[in-house]
Amino acid sequence: MFQRSSFFTKQLFTVLVVNFFSLCLVAGLLYSNFVEDYKSNLVDVLDNQSTLLASATSTSVLFADTDTTQELLDAASKLPAIKSAKIYDANEDVIASYTMDEIVEHKPPSLLLEGATFGDHIIHYLKPIEFSSDVIGYLILSASTSSLEAKQEHAMYVVVGVLLASMLLTYLFHWRLQRLLTKPIQQLISLVKAVGTDREYSVRLPDQRTDELGELFNGVNDILATVEHHQTQLKTQNTELERLVELRTRQLYQRANYDALTQLPNRHLFVEKLDKAVLNANKNNSALSILFLDLDRFKLINDTLGHDIGDEVLVIVAEKLTSIITKQDCVCRWGGDEFVVMLEGIDDRDELASIASRIIDSLSQPMAVSVNQLHISTSIGIALHQQNLETGIEILKHADTSMYHAKERGPGHYSFFNIAMLEESLVRLSLESRIRQAIKLEHCFSLVYQPQICIHSQKLIGLESLIRWNDNGNEIPPSQFIPVAEEAGLINPITSWVIASVCEQIRNWLDDGLTLVPVAVNLPASFLIQIDCAEQIDDILKKHHVPPHLLEIELTENSFISSTDFALTSLKKLKKIGLKISIDDFGTGYSCLSYIGTLPIDKLKIDGSFVSQLGCSGSNDGIVNTIIMLAKSLGLTTLGECVETGAQQSILKDMGCDAIQGYLHYKPLQSGSIATLLH
């Protein structure tokens, strides 16, 4: 308990203990001195009385006069202090005696020492009776010590009372003094407890003192002020740190779950949302649909105009998609130029087709990006969730598969998934692998040439080179492997091989002394948009020593959809080299009339889909006639493709078409047959 007491309690207790022992020592000394003084006084009284009696009785004792001796003793009995007196002769026989009260204790002189001898409540005083220096007898006076004991008891009470009073006064004085001295210390202790418990650094100690404690208080206040300042700074820093941590957490979540460019949910977050949507659809038997979008020929924009322009296009696409779908639906950037839209509660094919058409129409609108006027399109695959049969990933795979089927139909189409598409996808993957192998081997590809005939003179005026692929004895039609090659990014090396092979063949015909007509080569958009497109073709012409006017470049309208400005730059370079340029399949592209007059072209080739319907539809004939009139107004020649009947040729001739190409005159021929035809 003492160990758990406060410091000031221990201090007070220590002071009291020290004072107690000090006072006890002083009281003991005083008491002892008082008792000794009283004893000394009592002995002095007995000594004086014994001396008087011994002197008075010496003569009577010498002569053995007992009566006189007794009388003298009786006279001494009048002294109140003497309780008993006896006189002995030299032989220690009692000569005279008297006794007051009942004193039972009597001792002969031989048992007492000269002077005072204290007994039990009595004091004996032995005084020799001398005569001429000889001891002739003994006087023994006995006195009661009750008065001494009473004085001792009184003295004890006084000493104890003084001791207790002194202790009380000491306690009160020290307690009061301690209160005065320890008050500032208690203030300091209270302050330390408040600071330690509540972390309240704004409290201060009073600074009115001018002593050492005042200096201590000022020092403590300075420390508290410094700590408070640091705490304020620390709190500010902690607040800022918490804000930064919260900001970084949001940023990390944003980076982990949202696309940095378009701010749309990324693949990771979309898959989570899709899995939840699938669970909800299975649980509530509700509808769920996925639209998988891929921008057509977007790679050309990145390769030709740069990724900065491509990024701006992606941002615009994301904004358009977000504006079309509702807030409860979700659109994400799947990666690259692919986007995925999740529609909950919709499984009506007509409604899905309407949404897909709105997306295609919105994205097909011209985009002003930097100084470029861009036209893009998208292919959309649509997959519907089947209850309890599919996971989110399977639905995505089905939508992706149907998207590739939409691409096969041409830019800007959509397609719904069906199970047969999975088998076709496997065939497509196998075909892509075999195309890659064929490019490495080169001899797997070959060229045929279809003559182009003047509609008036029926003479040969040109050739169109067409690629053929023999895959281990199986002839794969271009309509089957060309789209796969374009989608897989393999069309450019095939195009380079075609141009080189055509130039090599032209060189061979020239060496054989044949009179040649221009040979047309189909140039895909991806090849045209290359920065060094014209340089590559020029290098091939020079390598084989082929005059540029013998090579003609055929392009589709869609070659200009991705980047009209850059395509125009490439065409001007080709035109400067000396090549003739024609637009193939004219009339099937997008917004062709808005820019056809600005292109450095020489010929328009009317698509076979229009030629095959000549004479069957007034509107179709009107379109063909308009194309021919447009070409004439621009100073361009026209050529009808896929002419198979005389009636078709006659109608084209009446409309003013310049040339035709088709089975009516020639099928595609091998190079040897063309050599014979040239002779």
From TrEMBL:
Keyword annotations of the record: Membrane, Transmembrane, Transmembrane helix
**EAL domain: residues covered:** 428-679
- UniProt-listed Pfam families: CHASE8 (PF17152), EAL (PF00563), GGDEF (PF00990), HAMP (PF00672)
State the Gene3D superfamilies in the record.
3.30.70.270, 6.10.340.10, EAL domain
Q: Which GO terms describe its molecular function?
A: catalytic activity
Report TM segments: 12-31, 154-173
Q: What is this protein called?
A: EAL domain-containing protein
Gene Ontology biological process terms in this record: signal transduction
SUPFAM superfamilies given for it?
A: EAL domain-like (SSF141868), Nucleotide cyclase (SSF55073)
GGDEF domain segment(s): 286-419
Coiled coil located at which positions?
none
Instruction: Give residue ranges for domain HAMP.
Output: 179-232
Q: Which NCBIfam families match?
A: GGDEF
Question: What cofactor is needed?
Answer: Mg(2+)
PANTHER family cross-referenced by the UniProt entry: BIOFILM ARCHITECTURE MAINTENANCE PROTEIN MBAA (PTHR44757:SF2), DIGUANYLATE CYCLASE DGCP (PTHR44757)
Task: Provide the Gene Ontology terms for cellular component.
Answer: membrane
